[in-house]
TrEMBL record:
Protein's name in the database: Nitrogen assimilation regulatory protein
Ranges where the Response regulatory domain occurs: 3-121
Organism in which the protein naturally occurs: Novipirellula aureliae
Gene this protein is translated from: ntrC
Record-linked InterPro entries: Bact_response_regulator, CheY-like_superfamily, Sig_transdc_resp-reg_receiver
Record keyword Amino-acid biosynthesis present: no
Biological process annotations from GO: phosphorelay signal transduction system
Keywords: Phosphoprotein
Amino acid sequence: MRVCFAADDLRASREMMRTWFSMLDYECKTFSGGTDTWEAILESPPDLVVADIEMPRGSGLDLLSAIRNHSDVQIRTLPVIMISGLVDAEIARIAEDFKATCLLPKPLDMKQFEEVIDQIESQREWRSNTVFESAFPIQVATLKIARPSAMPAVSPKLRRMARRIQESGSQLSP
């Protein structure tokens, strides 16, 4: 059975993902922040990670940066699905810059979720895992990125967080 780590500060979201992953024959371990997720990854890397972009105690961007910059290829090549309550062109660009496997909007849609997992499994079967080191190897046909005018702009906090990680690296230790 494959193992997934799901990180979100919202308990309801973690439990929903645990249920969906169970239906897809994954064992899903849930975490409320990036720091505890990172510690678990270092102890025993999963097959897949899902992380909310903004969380207390270690953001999803910190987690993604730590994963992509790790020296161990098994960790560096983990598929990482980023999720966010705000998905616009700028959030998509930030997730792409950080080499997310995919970006999904919250609230999560079960059909999109299953589509992404199926695509990840197909990539894993036909290619080496190094495909997951590149940005957005998984495209979601049904995902519509909102126009900036249709949604509020990226929060200044998220913009500062992304800039800090790009300039100084992840706050999570390797």
